[in-house]
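User: two proteins, same treatment. go.

Assistant:
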Amino acid sequence: MSSNINLIDSFQEFKEFKNIDRPTVITVLEEVFRSMIRKRFGTDENVDVIVNPDNGDLEIWRTRVVMEDGFSEDDDLEIELSDVHQYDPDLEVGDEYIEQITLESFGRRAILAARQTLVSKILELEKDEVFKKYKDREGELVIGEVYQIWKKEILVLDEDGNELILPKTEQIPADYFKKGDSIRAVVLKVDMMNSNPKIIISRTAPEFLQRLFELEVPEIFDGLITIKKIVREPGERAKVAVESYDDRIDPVGACVGMKGSRIHGIVRELRNENIDVINYTSNNTLYITRALSPARISSIKIDDDNKTAAVYLKPDQVSLAIGRGGHNIKLAGKLTGYEIDVYRENDEVEEDVDIEEFADEIDSWIIDELKRVGLDTAKSVLALTEAELVRRTDLEEDTIQEILRILESEFE
């Protein structure tokens, strides 16, 4: 009906871009019109509102009982005989008079108000739908497009145009995005803030690494391999404990892939984060040994009551066990649940770092020169004076000073 065009078409246009199911649409439409009817007639008890589910067309039918002249007490529910005969002369007292109500009869102001109510309700419903959708997807992988970049967060839009927030704290330190870039992350948490859904996504959460493994390793997705635990220092290092219930499947080999083919894509996504995949075991001694990979352990003393472990290694393995910045031993502790202390085999506490671990701060040719004269760890370099280093190597004095500054900062 032509009188419905402005109201219904505006809704249909709005509906095309919103993910609201058909029954909900009809309920919203009906409630808006019933509200109009109540304002005009005082009641909607005797009114039928029919919404066409296919195109949104509307019909409103009002039923009143025919009464003897002078006996009508409520014009909204009853109509006198003389009045009804103007429309249908065949009706008698006690019959029901059914008439169609057009939107035009409500007046332009009422129609505009109804349209405003309609848009408001749809927006409210849309926010609720987005909240429910993403609340159910916490921990799941999402893909979006970078829309706006601020100092403390990035605004990402999903395929439906919903806004996702990636805070700086949930970005990998080496992350760099431009507007229009595609971005992958997991849904970290969803809250309602001032009636608006706030969806926080993360690239540093362990769940992000887990979802990437599920994408790259079919055996994990199919449930043949289980990820028991993931710990991360985002952008630096991660340790993933995996287990297979099928003896024919090597869980570590399956995760890494032929020549690292499966794990390579994950490492690239995580900005070259080192990923250690280890076989899970309930044997704590063996589990800690594997967790400290790539270091080779000589012996371990475990105190299960206090959840501590004393690990003894050969001098050349100490720096590997600790790792650059202490990341390796810290992650091994988080993975196993034990506080791990590293000792040299002669029981002296040793804290040293392989000189190769400084490759991102010290040029490779300088590292090669230090190794040429037998200085392959940070402590072995720091044990010599500046003058001795200048005399033993072919390095300039200012280069030696810079090397010492870098190495000393590691142990501060």
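Protein 2:
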Amino acid sequence: MTLRDIPNLISIARIFLVLPVMWAMLQFDFGLALILFAVAGVSDGLDGFLAKHFQWQSRLGSILDPIADKLLLVVSFATLSYLGLLPWWLFAVVIGRDVIIVIGALAYHYAFGEYELKPLWSSKINTLMQILLVLTVMIQTQWFPEHHAVTTVGIWLVVASVINSGSEYILVWGMNAWRQRKHR
């Protein structure tokens, strides 16, 4: 093990935080869930900073980091939906976008070969909106249970960002496929 492995170890630790976050939510201990979620968020920034600043990027890290992020968000959305704090249809919309992106990536890979999947800005905004919604629901449930308007706005911002990001991925991948097909 070397210093270059630190970002990957941080990503693995973030994956291990997913179950405690879920457990805290299921226990309605949203104070603890917020702390664990915040630790996961800080670790995400830290592993990215270390990887870029010290040129410790790796293929494994490029896989682990988004898996850790996605796993935390999917489990958080599923748990909050299970608890009735977010609507199930929103969970389905969020998961549907991810499934479409994965199917598109696989189709592109098998039709045209390897493609470096770099997140689009709309995807980063979508992830931010999802994180903010999870945080809003936890804060609201813990301290302001009567304030549902902010959560409702957050839900619709997530829906808009899911539609925007999903559409952009379809357009970008479609245009890349069109160019590849023309060059064959």
